[in-house]
Design goal:
The chain is an alpha/beta fold and about 270 residues long. It has a single domain, classed as Rossmann fold, CATH 3.40.50.150. The relative contact order is 0.15.
Length: about 270
Amino acid sequence: MISKRWIFKQVMRIMPLRYAREHFCYHKLKKSLDNDKIKSLQNRWLKVNKAPITINYFREVFFDDDNKSLVMLCKNNDLDGVNRWYEELYSSQNVYMHYDEYLNHRMSLRVISRFITENFDRKCMILDAACGHGEIDKYLVSKSYYNLFGLDINAERVDSLSSFLNTVRAESIETTTYDDEMFDVLLGLEMLEHVTDLDETIRAFYRVLKPNGILIISTPYKDMIDCKEHVRMFDFDKIAHIFNNYNFSIEGICRLPYLNFDGYNDIVAICKKL
């Protein structure tokens, strides 16, 4: 039988590797902000994508039958049906967090957290557009970032955040009552693969961001992370083409591990409102 002491020793051996990898990933994201590299990539994207793509596209190969039914509801813009689909999903789950929702387990989330604390003033206005259990928000509060605002469509999750974050609303980014041009930084983390109407979502991002405001997104790279709730896939070309179409510039983009010891399966992009 494996003892707790043996497990503890193995964890202690792994921890330095995790921190070294996190440091490497942070500098990978920083390096992606190199202007000359981004300009050359954008020129390539413009050449590759001369013809406009359909913005509100959906996956054609499905994760399972439940995923197929969700995609069909989104394609038909059946918002009531989508809401019922998610209500059934949430009724079979609980409000407690899954393994991949913890900051300690999420490499890309910790890299984004560090990027914010090292590049943005504590007074800046930050909106987490799909805050979930608020892991990144708890971290930012611990670093004295107090102008934090959140959105989540799950009312139970919103209630669970009230102990440390009272500026959170049970709304979607598309229907939020936050003012125009209110935020310096907007976080759209692991959400674009879920939304019903991508066009409406990105227009909402643009509306609430201040001029020259920064949008930070993360989303799975192709199908390297997949589940029944994902209605579309992304790669670098799609990200660049879509956001250029909505008057955002891609300031930096790279692939990072979603979880601590995953492959490079998550896209992180830094975009600026023009």
